[in-house]
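Assess this today:

___
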Amino acid sequence: MDSITQLIKNEIQKQYKSVKRFSEASGIPYTTLSNALTKGIGGTAYDTVVKMCSLLGIKQAYSDDIILFNKEFHDVYTMLAALDEKGVHTVTTVLNVEYNRCKENNDDTTIKGFAGISYASKPVIDDERMLELVRRLKGEESS
């Protein structure tokens, strides 16, 4: 299943708990939604997809670069959505530490907040790719 269909499915489940409820709230026929979510959004009328995305708060993008960025963002979002409260707190804490380090251009951060556990493994996304994603998120041009 393509990532956009999966994203829409996840958001319907998260926000409306069922396709039937989303159908009732959106006015989109249940059979249309069911077919789109089973076969993939690609065969669904453009207006219907736009309406679904709008109601679910999903921003649409048309550039290949943005779609790639959105896939990576979607993968991270999917993992975050699966975390419990402790996991979300841990990720938020690490994100805040890293954001402040980058904002202050301070590469001399301490690992004290991570109970002595230092960074030793290979990153999932290399530093340059992550910086590029952050630039895109901020709306800055690539260098």
